[in-house]
Amino acid sequence: MSLISRFISEQGKILSRRVNRLTLKQQRLITIAIKQARILSLLPFLNNEKQFERTESTARTTGLRTRNK
């Protein structure tokens, strides 16, 4: 699992080939391994550690929009 987790971002997304420096064949194998690990509940589909933390971006999107005149 430590090997597979190197190819996943902090948000739980699979990193791209350029970031990983893998060949196309290697990237496909890693992607299949990650998806199988998620199905077997060895890896989470999403990383929800900061789910309930309120940040500036969520504050902006949830607030009411006002016009400046």
Automatic annotation (TrEMBL):
<keyword id="KW-0687">Ribonucleoprotein</keyword>
<keyword id="KW-0694">RNA-binding</keyword>
<dbReference type="GO" id="GO:0009536">
    <property type="term" value="C:plastid"/>
</dbReference>
<dbReference type="InterPro" id="IPR036870">
    <property type="entry name" value="Ribosomal_bS18_sf"/>
</dbReference>
<dbReference type="GO" id="GO:0005840">
    <property type="term" value="C:ribosome"/>
</dbReference>
<keyword id="KW-0699">rRNA-binding</keyword>
<dbReference type="GO" id="GO:0019843">
    <property type="term" value="F:rRNA binding"/>
</dbReference>
<dbReference type="Pfam" id="PF01084">
    <property type="entry name" value="Ribosomal_S18"/>
</dbReference>
<keyword id="KW-0689">Ribosomal protein</keyword>
<comment type="subunit">
    <text>Part of the 30S ribosomal subunit.</text>
</comment>
<dbReference type="GO" id="GO:1990904">
    <property type="term" value="C:ribonucleoprotein complex"/>
</dbReference>
<protein>
    <recommendedName>
        <fullName>Small ribosomal subunit protein bS18c</fullName>
    </recommendedName>
</protein>
<comment type="similarity">
    <text>Belongs to the bacterial ribosomal protein bS18 family.</text>
</comment>
<dbReference type="InterPro" id="IPR001648">
    <property type="entry name" value="Ribosomal_bS18"/>
</dbReference>
